Amino acid sequence: MNNVLIVGAGKGGSAILKILADSDVLKVAGIVDIHPDAPGLKLAKDNHIKTGNDYRVWLQKDIDIIIEATGNQKVYEDILAQKPPEMVVVPGAVAYVTSKLVDEKEALVSELKSHTKTRDFILDAIHDGMIVMDQHYQVSFVNKSAERILGFKRAEMLHKPIEEIIPSTRLPHVFKVGRKEVNQKLQLHNGKKVITTRIPIINSANKAEGAFAVFKDITEVVNLAEEITDLKEIKTMLEAIIQSSEEAITVVDEKGNGLMINPAYTRITGLTEKDVIGKPATADISEGESMHLKVLKTRRPVRGVHLKVGPANKDVIVNVAPMIVDGKLKGSVGVIHDVSEIQSLTSELKRARQIIRNLEAKYTFDDIIAESTEMNIALEQAKVGAKTPATVLLRGESGTGKELFAHAIHNESTRRHNKFIRVNCAAIAESLLESELFGYEAGAFSGAKQNGKRGLFEEAHNGSIFLDEIGELSLNTQAKLLRVLQEGEIVRVGGTNPVTIDTRIIAATNVNLEKAIMQGEFREDLYYRLNRLPIYIPPLRERLDDLPALIHHLIQKLNQDYGRQVKAISQEAIQSLTNYHFPGNVRELENIIGRAMIYMNHTEDEIIAEHIPKFTSQIKSESTEEKLPAPNLKNMTLQDALNEYEKQVLIRVLEENQYNKTKTARRLGISIRNLYYKLDKHNIDKSNMQNHS
Ligand SMILES: Nc1ncnc2c1ncn2[C@@H]1O[C@H](COP(=O)(O)OP(=O)(O)OP(=O)(O)O)[C@@H](O)[C@H]1O
């Protein structure tokens, strides 16, 4: 509010100005009392400047506007006679604008000029509402702001009973008791909130002539206060979100200086507030360009930019967006993602996926590497076979990928959502195999108390059963399998009722079934049933075109298994592998690459020839001639000693035969089934072994 000096001459206008001075509506520097006996001018003593009409005194005051509020011709002429340089004369009023308000002078002057009646001008220019009531309780004056606040036109209010205009008015009361009420809160009929001061008008004879109210619309202020409270709440909320966010956040101002970071930012970059707040946006970058600066320059967001930040050179990906408020650039906000965290999450996800796949048929045709023509033929046959319900017979040496094909065929078939069950016919004791495959009736083995059990054929109903090592089935089990293939039904062990099943059979073998038929070890009728769709997978040595692609595939697979980052293999190393004949096929290749990766230094990321074992020494097997050391016999029974010796012999011969079980069994002169039994008995790990050669 401007600092106003009011010059009065004892007329009606002065009385209103006095009231204004009393009610704090204007900040009044003082009143020039030209006619000391003027009615209505009864101000506090120290506010009176008794100067007569010497206006120069005014200039010494710290005032913005001096307004002569009377039409008194004499005063007007006096002022004109002494007019200071900045004084502007307006008809009916004199306005003096000090240099402090020079900028507003023009506007004020033209405003003043448009008002002939200064009193009304002042009162109308006041932001506060004013309403005057006479002794008949009727409205005798309202200003413009009162119109705005009360929501009525001046003509609608003048000469109307005050209570019609403001139903809750207390002006009649103030008039009756003759006492003012200062700064009272009031809610108007139209919902507006006002703060009002009510004052009785008392004439020189000390008689009440009416009362008036000056009121300020505080609706906006109250709303503003509420808005500010809301804004404060939002600010607190946002701060809490940013502080607790797991995402690292950094904010800079429009000049690119650090404004704010959160704890996640410190965790990832290692930089604290003192390192970045108020510092240029480049402060946290250890490699790359500051994206904050780029965004401030272009006003466009950037996403997914790779950078290195902080003293630890952390690998991160950043997204930065400009903050534009009402079209003005206020700064930018960046969100930083820790790449190593993303990487570890991705590999965790991959592992989880792998585990899930382990529970089902793991592989699809996409997992089968086939570059050579030979492999592509096998692959094409398998894909065609997958779409038919026919029994598939996979043939090929151990480790060529027969199981891989079986998985892929199941996953490509319409049965993919049902079970895939793998049975290694050589690994299960013959006595158990039948009941495993076909199930048994209650009481079949040990009296009526024993519950019956479904066999694997029933388990895999609507799915597929993979019968690996089918050449190892006994003639008895072969007969039962033939029934499954012919009738589509099984009979549980100990039962008589056939159970219809719909299980697709995928069989695999590496033995020469034709030779087995001739030797009377395999049923010819079963052979023809199984051999409807034979797929031959050639040994690796006959399709060396697959070698490089297989090696790269295996490196990726083993990287995941071992948590390594091996990226390549040298040409020389590939060359040395091409010279090998791989009796254990792809499984052996996998073992060789795996071993090379284990022996590699953690700083190396390329497999070189030195990492590959010398194959010549591996192929020879004359070391069997070497004597095995006798076990330490101290405190051992003969049986313990024999067991220990047997175990050592098994391990040694397995090693000499590259863990190929058929070769080992043949070399030891025992059946493969017997070998499985002994491996179990001595707890020898079979996971890395080949079944046959
Ligand atoms: N073409 C191929 N592409 C990718 N991986 C392969 C391929 N062939 C074989 N492998 C991998 O080699 C290993 C041996 O394959 P698989 O177990 O399928 O052989 P197999 O012929 O069933 O062996 P066995 O007769 O001893 O049971 C597996 O880890 C398999 O994933």
TrEMBL record:
* Keywords (A to Z) from UniProt: ATP-binding, DNA-binding, Nucleotide-binding, Transcription, Transcription regulation
All copies of domain Sigma-54 factor interaction, residue ranges: 368-598
Q: Which residues form the PAS domain?
A: 122-166, 234-285
Give the InterPro entries listed for this entry.
AAA+_ATPase (IPR003593), AAA_lid_NorR (IPR058031), Homeodomain-like_sf (IPR009057), HTH_Fis (IPR002197), NAD(P)-bd_dom_sf (IPR036291), P-loop_NTPase (IPR027417), PAS (IPR000014), PAS-like_dom_sf (IPR035965)
Pfam annotation, one family: PAS_9
- State the protein's name: Sigma-54-dependent Fis family transcriptional regulator
Gene source species: Salinibacillus aidingensis
